[in-house]
Each structure stands twice: as structure tokens, then as C-alpha cells.
Amino acid sequence: MDFTKHIKFLRYSLAISAVMSGWLAGVSIDRYIIQFPAFMHLNIMNWAEYSRHADLGNGIYVYPPEAIIPFLALLVSFIIILVSKKLNILLLPVSIALALSTAGLFFTIFAAPVMLGVRDMPNDPVLLQQAFDRFHFWGRFRALSQVLLFFPALWAMVKVFQIDITNNQV
After folding, report:
1. How far is CA 83 from CA 6, 75, 80, 128, in A?
2. Is 4 in contact with 168 (CB distance < 8 Å)?
3. Which of 34, 71, 75, 77 is the residue whose CA sits 20 to 30 A from 157?
4. What is the C-alpha separation between 66 and 28, in angstroms, rounded?
5. 167 lies in some domain
6. For residues 47 and 39, is the Cβ–Cβ distance under 8 A?
7. Quick check: is 169 in a domain?
């Protein structure tokens, strides 16, 4: 791939990463500033019922791609930047975004199985409270990673659109 094709690809991939990480950040902020405090005041059975219909309903199809697509786009972008000698200006924001995206997926490894277990968990308040506590323990770290991810992803997108492809200048 030549310089112009690299830049065009990076513009798409970094724009996708910024938009999707912004969406992910918004979902995380909603969950931990609005939903989580509200669930603390409700019966744990209400949380379980909500989670079974939301997180384990449509969420099962929406949430994974929402985190995986930006990760993959950032990973491919990172590799292209490493291979190209002219694109070092993008290395810092893409590296930070990739690290935060990786951290978000890492914490998901611990949170997701807990949520998936809620689907078939008996309606035992003690078990459900333990699941709630474990899910949100890991979920807070995941949410923090996902919210912070948006800023370097946006920075990388802005930087790539500042590159002049007509003169092959960074």
C-alpha cells in the first residue's frame, strides 16, 4: 500500500474507532452515572429481570461489536503506522487508544461471564446480589477504560485528517 492508500484507510478506521468509542463511552457513562445508582435503590430481582431483557436481550448483539470493532480498527491502524515511516505523528494517540481498548476488553473477560450467568441463575437474592457486585466491580474498570478510550481515539482521528495527502506530507 502506498502513502495515500494508508492515509485513506486510516481515516476510515480511525473515524470508525472514534465514533464507536464515543458511543461506548456514552453507554458506560449512562450505566455508571444513571443506571447503577438507581439499581442500588431497587430490589436485586429488578436488576436481574432488567439485565435478562436488556444486557442479555438486544445487548448481547450490540455490546460485543461496540467494543471489538474499535479494537480491531485500532490494531490494524497501529500495525500500518508501525510499518509506515511517515506516520509516526499518529503513533502516540493510536497506541494510547489501543492500550485502553485492550484494557476494556481485558476487564470484559471478567465481567461478561458474570452477566452471562445471570440468564440461567435462579432468582435467589443472595446469588443475584453476588453477581451484581462482581459484575459491577469489573464493570467499573471496564467503563473507565472505555470512557478514557474516546479521547485518544478522537485525537488520532483529528491528527489523521490533518495530514495532507495531496503532497504526501505529514
Report:
1. 10, 12, 5, 48
2. yes
3. 34
4. 11
5. no
6. yes
7. no
